[in-house]
Amino acid sequence: FMLVSVFFSGLGLFAAREFLASGKFSVSKAFESTKKRFVSSFAQQIIVSIVIFVFALLVFSPVIASAFSFFQSAESQEVLSLALMNPGLEATSQALTSLLAGFFLQNALFFVLGFLLCLLAFLVFAPALLLLKQAVFFESNSAIASIKRAINLGFRNFFKNWAFFILFIIAVLIVSAVLNLIVMVISLSQDIIAFSASMLITLMLQVFITAATMLFLVKLYKLNVEAKTESKPEAKESIPSLPKRPLKKTSAVKRKK
User: Fold this and answer.
1) What is the pLDDT of residue 245?
2) Backbone φ, ψ for residue 246 (5° rounding)
């Protein structure tokens, strides 16, 4: 699944970049460009996935350690064995529910702290994560170099990237809400034509979200890399020119009186 996801991400990004540049795109060109950068992009995806997994493991390590000790207790073993032997009994489901509820209540603080840490990490690294694919597909960087490049681009214009991302999410949500409302109204009818129309609108919505996401990612990359900062020319101090005095003509030889 990761192989397919990485390849189609590159295909969409190259097609979106060509579309923004010329108003059209070629699937064959996008395919060739994606093929050249596929190995580095796949390696980058593996590294990022490992880092995220290790981070989540460290954040929720108290919960994991508590789960081992909690479910090794005699009471928990009894309830679990009862649930395996008699899964259909109401008393078994109640005992299992109370056991799980007790575990979550016992570790509620760790769950809340872990969730807050993950949320904080997302808020900090979201701009960099949005630029990962562009850094490896559009530039000749290795997997690790592309990660560093994405972090550098993400933090360079941190608040602008977040603002652009929020505006994009709002626009997509508005369009999705309108199309979903239309689908809901059409689906109230039991006609086969109405059902086909609702399915077509749903498919169009998925295509729209995918295309808009790719265009947004390319535009975000361009804003961070290709946008030139307007520099004001330095004002040169003007030296006022002195008024020129007319030269008096003098005769070389004075007339004798």
Assistant:
1) 56
2) -70, 135
Beta carbons of 127 and 161 less than 8 angstroms apart: yes
pLDDT tens-digit profile of 100-137? 888 788 888 888 898 999 999 989 999 999 999 999 99
Number of other CB atoms surrounding residue 15 within 10 Å:
23
Residue among 164, 123, 134 at smallest CA distance from 226? 134
- Copy the structure tokens of residue 55: 């981070």
| Separation of alpha carbons 31 and 66, rounded Å | 49
In whole angstroms, what is the distance from residue 76 CA to residue 81 CA? 9
In sign, the C-alpha dihedral spanning 30, 32, 33, 34 is: positive
Q: Which two tokens stand for residue 143?
A: 């997997």
Angle, CA of 94, 96 and 97, to the nearest 5°: 65
Q: Determine how many CB atoms are found less than 10 A away from the CB of residue 233.
A: 5
Angle made by CA atoms 162, 166, 170, in degrees to the nearest 5: 175
* CA-only gyration radius of the chain, Å: 33
* pLDDT tens track for 165-177: 898 888 888 888 8
CA distances from 118 to 16, 112, 122, 224 (A): 31, 10, 6, 26
Model pTM score: 0.72
Distance (Å, whole) CA 168 – CA 245: 68
